[in-house]
Design a protein that fits this description.
Blueprint: H1 14-31, H2 40-54, E1 63-66, H3 72-79, E2 87-91, H4 94-107, E3 113-116, E4 137-143, H5 145-149, H6 165-172, E5 173-183, H7 188-195, E6 203-208, E7 212-215, E8 218-221, E9 224-229
Parallel strand pairs: 1-2, 1-4, 2-3, 4-5
Antiparallel strand pairs: 5-9, 6-9, 7-8
Helix pairs in contact: 1-4, 2-3
The chain binds S-adenosylmethionine.
InterPro entries: Efm4/METTL10 (IPR026635), Methyltranfer_dom (IPR025714), SAM-dependent_MTases_sf (IPR029063)
Protein name: Protein-lysine N-methyltransferase EFM4
Enzyme class: transferase
């Protein structure tokens, strides 16, 4: 089975995410609860630490999270010193964007650009001062979005919607830019197989270690975080 071929599930539908975020908006309005943190606080911290080390705030990078949900990762970058005006999040669920904007307001992150965009069919808008949204990002983040997309309905040729995703991500990146992805559906090796290809032009850059578990004589992590880079021309 190719690494992008998972059986379709409810988690791959927009209806599912619309329902999740409708509930989370109501919860936030009622109790101030910011909603679920996918893969837990530790994954957010580790992705933010990786960014600070490899794409530091001092370089004034343009950063976008694809499928930004409630925006937790972007707010961690804000706290780490990145310029809010150079941070963006897109999500295809309008209530996800509404929730992230409400939280941004409460956390002093109003200047973060948060918008509705179906990444499989639309291109995110560029930010002020950015030459272009295609080929204009220094860092693209994905925390659980490739996972969700890979659970979507297959097309008439039996292809998963995840098939073209790594190439679309690569198109967003500047030469020398990075993508950092965390997944619970794909192993590090599977992510390498899908993202570091001739078509994407991406190369493996580094990985983030997560706690391992052992079961039945095998050991592994429950999720993987891997970085790829779009090489600069020689
Ligand atoms: C597992 S959640 C992770 C959300 C967020 N990254 C986080 O860590 O909290 C997956 C997210 O991807 C979004 N998503 C799925 N397919 C998408 C698409 N085609 N375009 C944009 N967003 C999408 C969902 O709405 C959802 O917010």
């Amino acid at each position: 089975m190719a690494s992008t071929e998972l059986p379709p599930s409810e988690l791959g539908t927009k209806d599912h995410w619309d329902n999740v975020y409708e509930r989370e908006v109501a919860n936030f309005e009622e109790t101030g609860d910011e909603g679920e943190i996918w893969f837990g606080e530790d994954s957010v911290e580790k992705m933010a630490d990786w960014a600070v080390e490899n794409v530091p705030p001092s370089t004034q990078p343009f950063i976008i999270e694809v499928g930004s949900g409630n925006g937790t990762l972007l707010f961690a970058l804000l706290d780490a010193g990145y310029d809010a005006k150079r941070l963006a999040g897109i999500d295809y669920s309008p209530d996800a964007v509404k929730l992230s904007k409400m939280i941004a307001g409460a956390r002093g992150g109003d200047a973060i650009s948060l918008g509705v965009c179906d990444f499989l069919s639309e291109t995110p808008s560029s930010l002020e001062g950015q030459a272009s949204s295609v080929g204009g990002w220094d860092l693209v983040l994905d925390k659980g979005t490739y996972d969700a997309i890979a659970l979507g309905e297959k097309d008439e040729h039996g292809r998963s919607p995840a098939v073209g995703y790594p190439a679309r991500i690569s198109q967003l990146l500047k030469e020398g830019g990075h993508v950092l992805i965390t997944s619970c559906n794909f192993t590090e090796e599977e992510l390498k197989t899908s993202f570091a290809t001739y078509e994407t032009g991406l190369v493996y850059h580094s990985r983030v270690s997560h706690p391992t578990f052992s079961f039945g004589g095998h050991s592994g992590s429950s999720y993987a975080t891997v970085a790829f880079q779009k090489p600069s021309p020689p």
